[in-house]
Write a structure and sequence with these properties.
- The protein is mainly β and 160 residues long.
- The chain contains 1 helix and 14 strands; from the N terminus they run βββββββββββββαβ.
């Protein structure tokens, strides 16, 4: 997968997408809203089993207590954790459909450097080209197609 100014190229197709409201950054920091440049790898996939069929044999269901730590003071910073969790976090099981399907990238994972920015997910967009907090987002149908055609260790190249 290669992020271009026109979208993401993957398997001979071009998919429109959204990126972070902070644009692209070579120096990603927690909370800057930027999408980090570099070569990242797909390291996992999560999905809502109450909203969709398993998109891939290696996808993991998102449960009601699943969270993602985005608190630099948390020993589990930039990792999936379970509720109740005393540190800052983001709920993975959301009321809206943004995280019905989440592709996890290797950005600052598994050995997170505090403050370098928590997870960069690939997920569904709110609306066409609406900026994210740093993630890469797609139309729901495109995201599902991508999920069905990638594998663990697929590269995501973000040039900047």
């Amino acid at each position: 997968m290669v992020l271009t100014p026109r979208g993401v190229r993957f398997r001979g197709r071009l998919f429109p997408c959204s990126i972070g409201k902070g644009g692209l950054s070579r120096h990603k920091r927690e909370g800057d809203g930027a999408t980090p440049t570099g070569t990242h790898r797909v390291v996992g996939m999560l999905y809502r089993p109450d909203r969709m069929a398993r998109p891939s044999g290696w996808a993991v269901p998102i449960g009601p207590g699943d969270l993602w730590s985005d608190d630099v003071g948390d020993p589990n910073y930039n990792h999936m954790v379970r509720a109740p969790h005393p540190f800052g976090h983001e709920r993975l099981r959301r009321a809206d459909p943004l995280y019905d399907l989440v592709i996890l990238t290797s950005w600052n994972w598994p050995h997170a450097q505090k403050g370098r920015g928590s997870a960069i997910f690939i997920h569904q967009w709110r609306k066409p080209h609406h900026p994210t907090e740093g993630c890469i987002a797609f139309h729901r149908d495109h995201l599902r197609w991508i999920a069905q055609h990638l594998s663990l260790d697929t590269r995501l190249i973000v040039a900047g």
